[in-house]
């Protein structure tokens, strides 16, 4: 569904701070981004959020030439993770995001990776359009907008949960802090259990997606009684799916990059949407089911084609994966 969301003319962006986090440009060992991507990121914020404050949260010895920001935060690089559960750069992303959010004084904030950029500001209006929540399901004070690119609904034909993209988060600053300002991983009372579970599938295609490990940690921290501890990527039953969907409907808005105003790095761009990702219409169906049954959903050509591809592709993908890989459970 392609909608043209537009921010109200009288809205200013002075209440928003953009935390741009991560390495500046490319660096040794990570050279797959186009040159000048961080400068493009910062310039795009000036264009599309002209009154917003920009905080650049990065590492020492970065080339900051010609970069336009309001506040610079330099953190000491914590290095790669070696805990047996988190992705190798988990603490790097957490630390740079936390350091940036610590400096935010505005009521709204954006967490934006330094290798993405803006193409509009429609997400500001989108965040206010779906305010209803299911009774006793609201965790955040307002909904948080997350982009649909790499927000996985399935993997190898199997339904999965807790696999949101880490590119872009927009919402109340207090809500973003709930997500990103977590204690060190080993300080969680569930960390050892996650490590032990991860060791059983280490080196297999059943390991959690990187995005699942992030979400597993922050969601278990803020909703401990309803969040399961995943043993592997596909460790999900119908009850878990419903719990996840109800959380999404009342707390998150999944928006498509092209209609929310998010620009994607080249390696993330696709001619057609991946069959394993959520679309905004997928999310809208959840919102209608759990929060507001008066919502009108217009299924457009892109959504029909997406659902048709899922109908044929996902069962085939599931079968191929099953033939190639024996389950460890």
Automatic annotation (TrEMBL):
It holds the Pfam family WavE. This is LPS biosynthesis protein WavE. It comes from Photobacterium iliopiscarium.
